[in-house]
């Protein structure tokens, strides 16, 4: 059984995502910090930034915090902006592109555990 957990914004470290251009990830809560069955991550996508086509074995639930950008999911493109929510099924080919002048930011909730990215050609 997990215990209650509070993490402060100042305690979150953000790292560049190697497989992407202009994407940074901060792990807000996951099993490593003492969380339960879910993980919450916060991503920022810089203006001009992009994430190549890739898949993950786990599903994603995302909530756009700020900015606007394009998400491709299984061959369809979607313009998203602050307040929008997304579901990306496990195994779906998806990608991101920020053509705007402002950074985009989103929360991503996933099952706890490994979330390996497999780049697509």
At a glance:
Helix content is 0%, strand content 55%.
Q: How does the SSE layout of this entry go?
A:
Layout lengths: L13 E3 L4 E9 L8 E18 L4 E7 L1 E6 L2 E6 L3 E4 L5 E4 L6 E8 L6 E2 L2
Antiparallel strand pairs: 1-2, 2-3, 3-8, 3-9, 3-10, 4-7, 4-9, 5-6, 5-8
Explain this structure.
The chain is mainly beta and 121 residues long. It contains no helices and 10 strands. It has a single domain, classed as Jelly Rolls. The chain is globular. The termini are far apart. Pfam families: Cupin_2 (PF07883).
CATH superfamily: Jelly Rolls
The CATH class is Mainly Beta
Look up the CATH topology.
Jelly Rolls
How many domain units? 1
Report the mean per-residue pLDDT as an integer.
92
Q: Please, how many helices?
A: 0
Q: Over the alpha carbons, how many angstroms does the gyration radius reach?
A: 14 Å
Main sheet makeup: 10 strands, antiparallel
Stretches where pLDDT falls below 50 for ≥5 residues? none
Helix amount, in percent?
under 10%
Topology pattern, helix = H, strand = E: EEEEEEEEEE
**CATH architecture annotation:** Sandwich
How far apart are the first and last residues' alpha carbons, in Å?
A: 41 Å
Shape: globular
* Beta content: over 45%
> Which structural class matches the secondary elements?
mainly beta
Count of distinct strands? 10
InterPro entries: Cupin_2, QDO-like, RmlC-like_jellyroll, RmlC_Cupin_sf
Domain Cupin type-2: 42-109
Organism: Haloarcula vallismortis ATCC 29715
Pfam families: Cupin_2
